[in-house]
Amino acid sequence: MYRLIVTCISLVSFQLMAQEKPLDMKMDFEEYNPPSSLKTEEHHLTKSKFPFIDIHNHQGNMNTADLTGLVREMDKLNMGIMVNLSGRGFRSSGDHLEKSIENIKKQYPNRFILFTNVDFGAIDDADWTTRTIKQLEEDVKRGAKGLKIYKSLGMFNKDAKGNRIHIDDSRIDPVWAKCGELGIPVLIHAADVKQFWDPIDKNNERWLELKLHPGRRHDTDTVRWETIIAEQHSIFKKHPKTTFINAHMGWYGSDLKKLSQLMDMYPNMVTEIGAVIAELGRQPRAAKSFLTKYQDRVLFGKDSWVPDEYETYFRVLETEDEYFPYHKRYHAFWRMYGIGLPDEILKKIYYKNALRILPNMDKSQFPK
Questions:
Q1: Structural domain total, the chain
Q2: Cys staple from 48: which of 67, 78, 180, 318, with CB 3.0 to 4.6 Å?
Q3: What is the mean pLDDT of the chain?
């Protein structure tokens, strides 16, 4: 009798549960971002251990702006010098560059560096090369310490016939050579991460980013990623006397073996870590090995000016923290690990390498 009663109660309970509304377990991937239950030691570094030079930054109004607030934010981070790669502004104006340099000299002459830029829109003009070289020489006399090349070259810039201008177009060769003669580096951003060209499906690691930012898709572009990157490598090879700063680790941060091959192949190529710290942070042992081997050829860069995001960079480079989040989940949904670089390598990445590569630098504000 007892067993019969228990069985009947169980059947009734099962029937009642079956009548209840089933638990909805569906959730969009964008929403799923649970806090980690892992308890580990954490170091939230809002200031770098050593003063650093940010070799990759963009500021649009240095020709007129009061720079006091910007310097105050830089001091909080321990940023010694900011390199503004947008020296000529958005309209490639020499007047913008000259006024920016004057404004910097009046306010904080030791805290900012400007790179100049080149306009490829009139490359078909017979005198374009001569005119561009003259502009480059004048900009360096004004105070520019480098040339920044945007990703538009190789991707979007077109000649008068509507043809894509190749990065290794022979008409640009004298410009690369002139930079070598003037002793200024060329910081070049070519293409974007390869996944932007790959099919946008479940196998694409950047699916979330591309869903949220569809303007970054290049999967239907006629020019392939491999083509653009090959053109970039071509100018490294053709101009061994010019120092090229390969922006964003050349988009090989997720393939350090390949990047190592490129570093060995092109001794005139250095690189910077702007916008790719997430690649280093998910492979701390391999990253530490790479940064140790190429410690004299890696520079600190951030790219976008968002002060709160620098903490991720400091934490990856300086600490041995485990499994902490990146500051933009859509950019890197994986977790970071600290590399824990020794002080001498940190100093090189933070400022020594930039001081060596940039011309006529005052080193007095940085530790030896």
A1: 1
A2: 78
A3: 93
* Dihedral pair phi/psi, residue 106, rounded to 5°: -70, -30
Nearest to 255 by CA among 276, 269, 275: 276
Evaluate whether residue 8 is within a structural domain: no
> In whole angstroms, what is the distance from residue 175 CA to residue 159 CA?
17
Q: What is the pLDDT of residues 103-157, one digit of tens each?
A: 999 999 999 999 999 999 999 999 999 999 999 999 999 999 999 999 999 999 9
CA triple 262-209-204, angle to 5 deg: 65
Would you say 293 and 265 are in contact if contact means Cβ atoms under 8 Å apart?
no
> How many Å is the maximal CA-CA distance in the chain?
105
* pTM value surpassing 0.90: yes
pLDDT in tens, 12-64: 454 545 555 566 788 888 888 888 999 999 999 999 999 999 999 999 899 99
- Give residue 20's pLDDT: 56
How many whole angstroms separate alpha carbon 334 and alpha carbon 332?
A: 5
DSSP 215-242: GG--TT-SS-HHHHHHHHHHHHHH-TTS
Nearest to 249 by CA among 224, 231, 232, 227: 232
Instruction: Count the alpha carbons within 13 Å of 285 in the hemisphere toward its beta carbon.
Output: 0
Whether residue 258 is contained in a domain is answered as: yes
Compute CA distances 19 → 5, 10, 11, 195, whole Å.
21, 14, 12, 47
Q: What is the CATH number of the domain that holds 251?
A: 3.20.20.140
Q: Domain range holding 314?
A: 42-357
The answer as to whether 311 is a domain residue is: yes
- For the chain, what's the residue count? 368
- 């078909």: which residue's tokens? 124
What pLDDT is attached to residue 160?
94
d(CA 115, CA 185): 9
Instruction: List CB contacts of 248: < 8 A, sequence separation 6 or more.
Output: 189, 272, 273, 274, 275, 276, 303
